[in-house]
UniProtKB/TrEMBL annotation, chain A:
Main location: membrane
Membrane-topology descriptor: Multi-pass membrane protein
PANTHER family from the UniProt entry: NADH DEHYDROGENASE
Keyword Transmembrane tagged: yes
Subcellular location: Cell membrane; Membrane
Protein name, entry field: NADH-quinone oxidoreductase subunit N
Domain NADH:quinone oxidoreductase/Mrp antiporter transmembrane: 135-444
Gene Ontology molecular-function annotations: NADH dehydrogenase (quinone) (non-electrogenic) activity; NADH dehydrogenase (ubiquinone) activity; quinone binding
Length: 512, 100
């Protein structure tokens, strides 16, 4: 069980990021001041790409048609390289690459004084997300979570001279710190009930534990859901999201809304299906059914509250923040409906993963558009979109696609993803949830279409703001996001069958 | 034996949460978060000694927590200093410039 030197190769995606972060931070110190720091941004992107290549290599090794590699467990079972982890790592890495790419050329010196720091701080944050996705132990889970969180606190506050940014960063660290304390308190009860920090051992201990400990299981679960609910910004733990999104620089906001949120889902999925699954034994109504119900309630609350609060927002970032709350609700549905023995339903992961891909691309695209609008008008008001169709017709077309996907209209990735989640909820006969989902989606049309209305119906935009200030990386990001969104809408089966081929919850999660 | 430790930890956790949510001074808010994290450490160490399956892992976990809490406090204070330089206040009720 000791770490051998030969085991280190399985950690190569993570080690790449560690080494790159060290090298780039030293480079930032020794490079003379007149050297443009954009080169550090490119170096960060290259290191993320190398890490992606390693992840894809191990995904192939784990899924060879003959003699595939068994999921690797390292460091006394506390770190695992399995398909679940690899798939999530791909999302984190690709999302971070796009976010870094679109911020190249848009980071202004008067805004962010330490531009080098801005670029390479994404590396430890993504590393933390990757550790969260592939840990098999409470300690590694927590360390990964905090690595991601603490780095994002710094990233949110990186525009040191801006009062709003300072305020957002302080709010984020206070709420995030409280959420961490909640998660940790829940974890301490898990440790107390089992005497172990290994997720599989905890699950075994909980399955046979005395029924007098049921209350503690509930307490630990609710504490963890409250903490992680804050990290993924699901209602009723969402109040920080709008303020922090508004105060942070736009690429950082995109990072919080996509990669950081996806990492929270990876951790929640791992905890729910590895630690709490099957808890409560063979009773007619075992404990874990109640626990899944709690997740569904949070999901319904997030859908309703997120979509209703988004209706009255005048700032695009706050609107996207509440839309993110609502999307967290949709994404919680596949986790919460569980694997029921009486209903044939086992595609929870592919539903979650497919919608996460769609969510990643449509959100990165939307934030890239918002960056272009902010470069043009200087603020992120909704009316910055006014007459966009007449100023930049092609961009307006891309925005329409992205918004249709966010609203869940055909033929886009967001639509297909939502339909899959809806069908999953119907398969396990969670009709009330399906109704909430459909109704709240209809509500969401209103605020997404208010942006489209601004673009097409309003012609009284101010003179001088005629040309949209679009940098090349931003334009490329917008178009890649749009194309991926359309491809996901037209050819979802390839992606889905691929996910179903390589991920089976039995081999990935329940190996002992 | 263990229940008294757990009760103390729970009381500390709740005091920390109350302080973090209600205090006006930003430094005290950060201190209260530390109090919550330390309540968890107490919980872990009580379980490590008197739990169902006593083991060293709880103590190791709490060592990790102490380290991470130190890092978090450092970043929190740094952000607060940046805020104080721009706004000259450490009063959380005056941090209301967002939303508008």
């Amino acid at each position: 069980m000791r770490l051998q030197l030969s085991d280190l190769v399985y950690l190569s995606p993570e080690l790449t990021l560690v080494i790159a972060a060290v090298i780039i931070s030293v480079l930032d110190l020794i490079l003379p001041n007149k050297v443009n720091r954009t080169i550090l941004g490119w170096l960060s992107i290259v290191s993320l790409m190398i890490s992606t290549a390693f992840v894809i290599y191990y995904m192939r090794l784990l899924n060879l048609s003959e003699d595939p590699l068994a999921p690797v467990q390292l460091l006394n079972l506390s770190y695992r390289v399995d398909d679940f982890a690899n798939l999530f790592k791909l999302i984190f890495l690709i999302g971070t690459i796009f976010i870094l790419f679109m911020s190249i050329g848009s980071v202004k010196k008067e805004d962010i004084h330490h531009r080098g720091e801005y670029y390479y701080l994404f590396l430890p944050a993504t590393l933390g997300a990757m550790i969260m996705a592939s840990s098999g132990d409470l300690i590694t889970l927590y360390v990964g979570l905090e690595l991601l969180s603490i780095t994002s606190y710094i990233l949110v506050g990186i525009r040191k001279g801006n009062t709003k940014t300072n305020e957002a960063a302080f709010k984020y660290i206070v709420v995030g710190g409280i959420a961490s304390a909640f998660i940790l308190y829940g974890m301490s009860f898990l440790y107390g009930l089992s005497g172990s920090t290994n997720l599989t051992e905890i699950n075994q201990a909980l399955q046979v534990s005395d029924s007098s400990f049921e209350l503690l299981i509930y307490v630990s679960f609710m504490l963890i859901v409250a903490g992680l609910g804050t990290k993924i910004a699901a209602a009723p733990f969402h109040t920080w999201a709008a303020d922090v999104y508004q105060g942070a620089a736009t690429p950082i906001t995109a990072y919080l809304a996509t990669v950081s949120k996806a990492a929270g889902f990876a951790m929640l999925f791992r905890l729910v299906y590895l630690v709490y699954y099957g808890v409560g034994g063979q009773d007619s109504s075992p404990v874990f059914i109640d626990l899944f119900m709690i997740i569904l309630l949070v999901a319904a609350a997030a859908m309703i509250i997120g979509n209703v609060l988004a209706l009255k927002q005048r700032k695009v970032k706050r609107l996207l923040a509440y839309s993110g709350v609502a999307n967290a609700g949709y994404l919680l549905v596949p986790i919460g409906i569980g694997l029921h023995s009486q209903f044939p339903h086992s595609s929870n992961f592919s539903e979650l993963y497919f919608y996460l891909i769609a969510y990643l691309f449509m959100n990165i695209g939307a934030f890239a558009v918002l960056m272009a609008i902010e470069r043009t008008t200087g603020d992120g008001e909704l009316k910055g979109f006014a007459g966009l169709y007449y100023r930049a017709p092609y961009t307006a077309f891309a925005v329409v696609i992205l918004l249709l996907s966010l609203a869940g209209l055909p033929v886009t990735g967001g639509f297909i993803g939502k339909v899959f989640i809806l069908l999953g909820a119907l398969q396990v006969k969670a009709y009330w949830l399906a109704i909430v989902m459909i109704l709240t989606s209809v509500i969401s049309f209103y605020y997404y279409f208010s942006i489209i209305r601004q673009m097409f119906m309003r012609t009284n935009f101010e003179a001088g703001s005629n040309k949209l200030n679009l940098s090349v990386p931003i334009a490329i990001t917008i178009w890649i996001s749009t194309v991926v969104t359309i491809i996901l809408g037209f050819f979802p089966n390839y992606v889905l069958s691929y996910i179903n081929d390589i991920f089976t919850i039995g081999t990935d999660f329940f190996i002992r | 034996m263990i229940s008294s430790y757990l009760t103390l930890a729970a009381v500390l956790f709740v005091i920390g949460l109350y302080g973090a949510l209600s205090k006006k001074n930003a430094v005290i808010v950060l201190l209260c978060i530390e109090l919550m994290l330390n309540a968890v450490n107490l919980n872990l160490i009580a379980f490590a000694k008197y739990g169902i399956n006593p083991s060293l892992k709880g103590q190791i976990f709490s060592l990790f927590n102490i380290t991470i809490a130190a890092a978090e406090a450092a970043v929190g204070i740094a952000i607060l200093i940046a805020l104080y330089r721009n706004k000259a206040t450490a009063n959380v009720t005056e941090m209301n410039s967002l939303k508008k």
